[in-house]
UniProtKB/TrEMBL annotation:
Annotated S5 DRBM domain residues: 309-372
Keywords from the named record: Ribonucleoprotein, Ribosomal protein
The keyword Ribonucleoprotein is assigned to this record: yes
Organism: Microdochium trichocladiopsis
Highest rank taxon of the organism: Eukaryota
Any Pfam family the entry gives: Ribosomal_S5_C
A GO molecular-function descriptor: structural constituent of ribosome
Family named by the database record: Belongs to the universal ribosomal protein uS5 family.
GO biological process, one term: translation
Protein's name according to its UniProt entry: S5 DRBM domain-containing protein
Entry GO CC: cytoplasm; ribonucleoprotein complex; ribosome
Amino acid sequence: MSAVRSAPCLRLATAALGARPAATAAGAAPASRAALLHTSASLNGKPRRSRFKNVHLDAMGLSSPEKMQQFTEKMYPKYTEQELKALSERYTPEQMAAIEAGEAAIDPHDLTVQARMRSDPYRLPYLDDFSKILPIVDKRVRTAPLPDPNAKFMTESEFAGDLMTWANELIPEEHKQLLKGAGQSMDEALKPQFAALEASGKSRGEIEHEKSKLVRQWRNEESERLRPLESALTKSMHDEFPRLIYERSPFKDNNRPAHSPMAPGLGSNFPDSGVMEGRDPGDEALDPEGIWRQTQKVTGLPLRDLMNMRVKPLVIRFVSNQTRLGKIRSASVLSVAGTLDGRLGVGVAKSTDQSTATQKSKFLALQNLKPIKRYENRTIYGNVRAKVGATVVEIRARPPGYGIRASHRLFEIFRLIGIHDVSARMPRGRNPMNSVKACVQALQSQKDPGQIALGRGKKMVDVRKVYFGEDVRTQTA
């Protein structure tokens, strides 16, 4: 069909679709109506529907002053006496005064009218979440002052002279007295005795024999006298001088420590805890075979506390190694140990005997106890995620009373740490060994909100809806 139609055809099509002429006033001639240039039905008389959902004033609490007051009291209530008492148990009087001053500085009516928090996906990040690091905002906390811009490096001769002066200061006074005598040569020390031999009238052979005896005697005495100095200098050259030279500043003012790649020594004067040197006599009855000795020495904990800790073998798998002698079957066991107060250890051991592998993994888990950050001693800081192999573990913080909702292996890990409100999911692979490792890695990768706040130049204060969208009364109840 041709897209061009004649005027009679268009008029007929318009009449067939029910187009009515416009209403005319009494006595007025009917107005002529232009023919439509399309065959769609007219939408005259129907309201146009908006693409966006309208938000009524009643839902926002802005329809009347009474509704505004009710909405303000519901959304932004004041602290009750019970809440103030709970806060005073946690904060000092100065901090409580600052919290009350901050609450009084903000009018709840302004929050209702102007400062409404958006809930759409395109909302701006009004609240700071200290459980996440923003690479653009967060800077590394400076642990040392800025270097002096006027500092200059020493030249090669200045550095050599400074090093000799500094080395001379390290030598004790008793060794310096030995060095003064060592500066005298052998000819100067034996010159009077050689002169006495020449004047004695002895033969040349006897004189030379006496001189050789004096030389040997002087050398033996000199070596005996300098032996303490030699041993001390040798020990310093091997132990102290390399570290001290690295720590020596190469600047003229010598007021900035150099960046040393060597860690400082631990020293040798440690208090005797009764574990490093020997065991408690009462431990012999608990461990007559001495199988806990190494674990007790590494952890430094009493044997009774170690034996009462909770250890759970989570993963047991068997491997067969094909050799010319046949298949050699071995067991690999992964155990988890916890103190129920924020410390977790993981141990993996392998042996041809399953009981031996379980015992070894138990001891390794106790030796590898490490702290895990907990928020309010019940959950984690924010949401964390870790990936090991093809297994991904996502852990989310939950409000009080939520409980632990995770798989059975992750459930045991959270319970051993002392976390009570948390949820976890594994959207991808669920390999037993990788799931446990990914969970532990995610828990250890939590960001400390205090360090993040310090990096942003802010202070950690409890305000409403700081974490997880909760109120202070919910957290302190």
